[in-house]
Amino acid sequence: MNVEIKAPKVSIVLPTYNRAGLISRAVKSILEQTYSDFELIVIDDCSTDATAPIISGFNDPRIKYIFLSKHNGAAFARNEGLKIAFGEFIAFADSDDVWLKEKLEKQVKVLKNAPDDLGVVYSAVWKVQSKRKVFFPDRSLGLKRSGDIYKNLLFGNFLTIHVLLRSTCLRRLGMFDEKLPCLQDWELWLRLAKKYKVFYINQPLVLVYRTPDAISEKSNDFNEALERIIKKFSKEFLLYPKLLAKYYYILGRGFYKNNNKAKSRKYLEMALDLSPFDLKYMFYVWLIGFVNKR
After folding, report:
1. pTM for this structure?
2. Domains along the sequence of the chain with CATH
3. What's the pLDDT tens digit per position in 16-42?
4. Which terminus has fewer CB within 10 Å in the chain: N or C?
């Protein structure tokens, strides 16, 4: 007799790498969600610590643990999880963050009752560092948070990784860009927001803990990722010259700090070309020229 196995409504993909001291907290917060129709796919990106026995200790049939034999980074790990995800909806988690108990229930309620052109649901979060909690995204910015948010996302990422989205969106648009050393989530949200509407829940549903070894803190990786994203969405960024000048300025400063004077001058001059009366850009173009003459 054939037994039909019912696919879970939600597939949660959680990559991890050497987070044995933190992952138990993250997994526990997911398993304690008020919404329970999910599978939790833990992708271990070749950890060398005690991650495996910690995960097996939960003894929950909803958990799928996959160990990768080579360390390839979070984007690769998330994509490996997506390849085996069966859920109609996809959620992402981080191994050092904590979901509040109604996080998944509130997001699923929105998405399952929404029209097909609404592809992504996200919420506010508490960003936690040194016991200090900060509401994110910043209310004072006054940007449009729901609906067609593509233009606003070009000005910077105000979503975290803790979204819920339709699996059909990823089948149509593709997964995370593994060539990006960081900012992979921002790049994917840009692609999604270009085609689908987004819904924002104005309530913190996740505790996002900032750790000092986060990949986004590495300036070389940030410069490389921002360069690639600007090239990918160049047509859109060119519509906003002052914004593009700002990103060129950020790259110029970043490459200057990394002692790449040639690239630094290139991007600072590009920023000045787009915004010729900005004193910051003028100063740093002069500074690079002065340093190179010494």
Report:
1. 0.92
2. 10-213 (3.90.550.10), 216-293 (1.25.40.10)
3. 999 999 999 999 999 999 999 999 999
4. N
